[in-house]
Amino acid sequence: MRKSALAGALFLQLVPINLAFNQGMAGETTLTQSLAVPQILIENDPELDKILFDLFYDGNRSAGFEGIALPQQMPSMSASPFNAREFSAPDASPQPVPPSQSEMPPRRAKSTLILVQIDGLGYRQLLEAAKQGRAPNIAALIQNGQFQAAAYRNGIPTVTQAVQHAIFYGKLLPGNEWYSKKRRKEITGNEQELELTEESGILHGGSAYLSELSGGARTGADVNSLYMKDVRSQGTFLAILKELWNGGPLFLRYLLSHNPFVSLPKFFYHLVRDAWTLRNDFKEMGFNTEMDKKAPYFLSLIANLWTPIAVEGLKKAMRDEEPIAYMDFPSYDEEAHYYGSFSSQAFSALERIDKHIGELVETANQYGSRLLIFSDHGQTPTENFIKKYGKRFAQMADEALLQTNPASREGELVFLHVYSMGNIYAANFPGHMSLTDFEAGYPDLIQKLAAHPGVGMVAARDGEAVALFGKNGRKRLAKTGEALLLEGQDPLAPYRDEMATDKILGAQIANYLDIEESGDLVVFAPYENGATLDYNHKYSIISQHGGLGGDQMLPFVLYNPASLPLVPGEWLDARGLHQQLAALLKN
């Protein structure tokens, strides 16, 4: 789930362009209360009436979904990338269709590299959406032979900030949030990024939009890290003004480029309609946490306000010949969390994203820019740990600690989830705790945790090796992933697939344990019958990502080999993309 730099307060993005509101956002004021939706008066003009009706009515598809059979085993990374001839060409006549290779304009000396992230869209979901005609512009890129699509390994954890950090800086993070023993508090990837130099990020000299991390970019709009940096140096008020200054003109340009007499009413219509629909759906589905109640308004803002601003920002970067620019499309990921990754609602969000991508392709062709489209992770169906077992994972872990170590004190162990995995820290032990130390200080706790039905596997550091504990077996691995010892059933077996072999999974887990502030124990949720468990307690979601198992580990990359000769099959995790992009930018 994505946190915005200004959350609901960035309704004020509209202030610089003098859009009228009855009143600003305040407290828990609802969207319908705070917005003054303009009424369009049409007299004796049936043609305009029809145009507006057609524009406003987006032809929502049935909520039902009939899946097209997909191969049980995904192709290995060494196999040929997906070929668009596997599905029929969708009708993309209303959107710009990319020209063939021979029609492409020559790339300029100062060609901009545009990085477009579709948050949460897995490789299998991309194929399915293309087959259904729900992503015509993306499909057209592949069908004309110009672009190739391939799955890649993102590593763990499979969350946005961690994957972004690996791509931008070539370094792994423990998650979106984790516990710092040195600071004795929970910190986030945004805070961690503030300690890095801009020059170390791959976006240095460029811009970023609608992103958790800046990647070293100094300019952009709705970038959490940049906003936090401005708050620290200038205060909240000036930081908000700067955000308005950066985003307002871009939104104005979006309105003007799409006929403001149509785009402005359409904006208000979709803003209210989307929030209202989500709000009603969440009530019916019983999603009632505090974050669930705020999510409909936030998701509507993402799709209708922040996304157009980000798209215009990328267009500006191409016009200005910036070396590199990045944006994230979060809408598909957010819809998929609540409705499912193959749902009609999620694919409808992807359709809207695809239209924006059509605009970006057209601008890239005009200015000779290079385009890379990718996702950070996929999603795996999930059940919430709290709903299944009636308590939070941290409560269960505390109970297990008291049962095995009655003399233990409250707060001795700290648990922070990464959705379908989690970190357990011995708060008073400096640095990483070895398996020997942990078993001496907390005897039988690892076995107690591993035996719980809501746990699939527990990982710990065992000297220069990695120890894995399952319900009916344990395994010792070298840091390169090779098995050193297996007793009983293999704890890795449920997570294994063609792209995630034992050696690959072992190396990814070992790399995660090498992160400075990963937990003393790392807990992985079970993966059974294509689904996993979610340890989070803030959101009510049915599809998630974070740990091991299924589509959450299978994002995609869509690239032009002629201008971006990437080799996804060589990547153990998202740092592989960083290394190849850094080399290309350097040359």
Describe this structure in words.
This protein is α+β, with helices and mostly antiparallel strands. Among the domains are: 241 residues, no CATH class; 162 residues, no CATH class. 38% of the residues lie in helices and 16% in strands. It is built from 18 helices and 20 strands. The strands form four sheets. The protein has a seven-stranded mixed sheet with strand order 2-20-8-1-7-5-6. Strands 10-11-16-12-13-14-15 form a seven-stranded antiparallel sheet, with helices on both faces. A hairpin with a 4-residue loop joins strand 3 and strand 4. Helix 8 crosses helix 10. The protein is globular. The chain starts with 30 loop residues before the first helix and ends with a helix.
At a glance:
Among the domains are: 114-155 and 186-376 and 571-578, no CATH class; 383-544, no CATH class. The protein is 38% helix and 16% strand. It has helices at residues 31-34, 46-56, 123-131, 136-143, 160-169, 189-194, 224-234, 236-257, 260-285, 290-319, 331-339, 344-367, 385-389, 393-404, 435-441, 445-451, 502-513, 575-586; strands at 113-118, 148-151, 177-180, 185-188, 207-211, 219-223, 324-329, 370-374, 380-384, 413-417, 421-426, 457-462, 465-469, 473-478, 483-488, 521-524, 527-528, 531-534, 543-544, 556-559.
